[in-house]
Request: fold
Amino acid sequence: MPFIPHTESETAAMLEAIGIGGIEALFDEIPPGLRAPDSTAIPPGLNEMATARLLAERADANGAPLCFIGAGAYEHHIPAAVWEIAARGEFYTAYTPYQAEASQGTLQLLYEYQTMMTGLTALDVSNASLYDGASALAEAVLMAVRANRSARSKRVLIPRTVHPDYRRVVQTIVSNQGIIIETLDFDPRSGAIDPAALPANPGDFAALVVPQPNFFGVLEEVDALCDWAHSHGALVIALTNPMSLALLKPPGAWGAEGADIACGEGQPLGVPLASGGPYFGFMCSKSEHVRQMPGRIIGRTVDLDGKPGFALTLQAREQHIRRSKATSNICTNQGLLVTAATIYMSLLGAEGLRRVASASHANTRQLRDTLCAIKGVTPLFARPFFHEVVLQLDADVDAVLARMADGGILGGYSLKREYPELGESLLVCATETKTPDDLRRYAETCARALGRG
Amino acid sequence: MTLIFEQSAPARRAALQAPAADAAAVTDISAALLRTTAPLLPEVSELQVVRHYTRLSQKNFSIDTHFYPLGSCTMKYNPRACNTLASLPGFLRRHPHAPEQFSQGFLACMHELQEMLKEVTGMQAVSLTPMAGSQGEFSGVAMIRAYHTARGDHARDEILVPDAAHGTNPATAVMCGYKAREIPTNAEGDVDIDALRAAVGPHTAGLMLTNPSTLGVFERRIKEIAGIVHEAGGLLYYDGANLNAILGKVRPGDMGFDVIHLNLHKTFSTPHGGGGPGAGPVGVGEKLQPFLPVPMVGAANGRYHWITEKDRPQTIGRLSAFAGNAGILMRAYIYARMLGREGMHRVAEYATLNANYMAARMKERGFELAFPQRRATHEFIVTMRRESKSLHVSAMDFAKRLLDYGFHAPTTYFPMLVPECLLIEPTETEDKGTLDAFIDALCQIRAEAEATPDKVTGAPYTMPVRRLDDVRAAREPDLAWKPSSGAR
Reply:
């Protein structure tokens, strides 16, 4: 029987110990009318060999295109050691470290992770992860509204330069709690918020979300945005790509006072693309807000003998203690992905991360320059970018992308549906994984798709 | 054990793991946008990293190394094939925005998983996108809200939750803008029907129920409960935390539930990963279909496609940037294909057999069951109130001493209704010998508690650390290492 170890004689002995004649008797408290019909719609079981054959066919059916899409999920080299270790049974098959003494491995790793994230963001504290970048932003919005006691408002400002699906997730998660999300428009020339165009009297609001880099890959004027929000009594939520923080000014150093909360998608740190998940959301904040932070937090303490050790802490925030008064209903997190990310960051170090970030930036710049040499391709925004860039075509962008896909290249993310005002535009990304040859292939395929090959 | 930061030396690197320095010049970003000091990350070699994290892993209990009878968490064997096959390059390299022509293999798996989950739960439609049980619960209650709102029924502001429920239930009700009202449980472990009757009314949006309940018993009057809630105009939410007990035996759809979530990391054996990821798909009956979260996967003419807001204008929306914890859904799919229809029946059968066997043996050896008159489901509760009173050895002490015997502790002090309780869930994948050894260990600990109680109250002794000072951890939070803080 699949994964069931019982021999017939063991089963018989167990039934005898219970004092029943057969397994069916175990279900005698279920009203007979409720018993399930035979589920013929579920196929018969497969052995491992047959399953492996089926899954290999399915994996092949996804093809192996050369991918230049980013838009929230980024292809980076993942050192072999990352998943060799993260997939060890002791990490893979453990659970939430409620029994701290038997979970010191996971707990110390999470403490190290929290330290690394505070280093990247230049903030004081980090939680042990949330589900993904989008839900982390939603939790950050809820946290900011709770934490900003001086603002009487439940308004939160989110620029349209935040990933459109992130904005949808925020809407889904916060809309039933009376929080009002207002969008801020961007400057169509720069692809970023123009600080000079912000209202002088915006009214009371609880928080401003500042994406860096923003959805277009463009770098926002974070210092000015941060100071503007603070001058109106609002908190600042930084939404950022952790890989970019190897290069960019960290949220804790933005403006005069620094951002109050930083969150985002942790996937670039050692997590494969894998159809969008599992990834992990990260969240850091200034220490004054820690008791409003959702999710697990690990602390270092001592044991009965005074020896240092690690434990879940500040649990009075959480649902299993506070029930309806918890900061969130979140229970699990994305521990396995954090395990991978911690190993990844240890292997790369600050210098390695900086090189990956710089090489990704340089590759995207190179791709932009190569493509803009093709007639009919122009860069759309003037401001600096991290590792994604928006290009405008003089042809139907979706048709061009479809022709490129037929040539085995995923040429980018079409912005037409989400940002129709940008015309025939696409968002492209070339991380450190792309070789000069890959860039050349892209350019040739793109030129052909535009009819200029 | 030292922290990875304490093994750091300036300029040491795992040199092979990053591009060469010559690509690194960034000249087109102004200094005001750049960081001026490097972030605090360790500077260590590849071997140091591998050894450090391998050694850390060895400080964990896990299913692969220890019996882990953590009640309500379903810590069953996670087949290695699920990880290996979900990690085939064709799955790992697929970008979430890849066009459908480069997604057919993945979408086929997701569509088949939706169909299988519909079948085993008796629901009409399934969305796989919630990333964990708490998101499944959130979607379920948000759909209930959307349903009432769409009918112009704005008076319903209350969600009923039995007092034995998981903490996520009331927390979820509040996140969806509802008040959570608790319904008491009777001495037999069933919902107090009279209290339920008294509580329902035009203000009732719905009832959240786990069946079997967290007390480890099947809610026998479920049809009656469903009738009471439906008559009052409310909807019935099934918390799938304990689906392992009834997989293939009873279907929530047949019990009268309007919406359910499943914890695939429990029933469908995806890894718990040290605290996640999970996956919490939701299933609904006819009434709630229009409100399901997107995206979902549709099929037409042998091709698979995404179902989005365009197709479902009344959807409660999105819960993740892409399509949920896809890789976890893949593992659940692979597990379901290996089990097949006959394997799924056996899950509930042998999970229940193991729990009832343990309960019978423990009762025989003098432990007190919380509900001795009831049939156990896939888990059962032992109360240590006698031992606690006469020996001054608590359920927590038993739990900690079990670690020294090489067993992960059961869930302690949950559900809160039963004093000094251990919630024990063996799962179907454990063999009789392991169950017997666990019971023997509990008996030995009780003997120790009678002879030398200090030995038990001071446990554990063989773990990397002894009991930790939680009060200090909360009062003087040390949440991140600082170079100046050094070794303590």
About this structure: Residues 83 and 334 of chain A are 15 Å apart (CA to CA). Residues 66-76+351-449 of chain A form a domain with the Aspartate Aminotransferase, domain 1 fold (CATH 3.90.1150.10). Chain A touches chain B through 204 residues (CB under 8 Å).
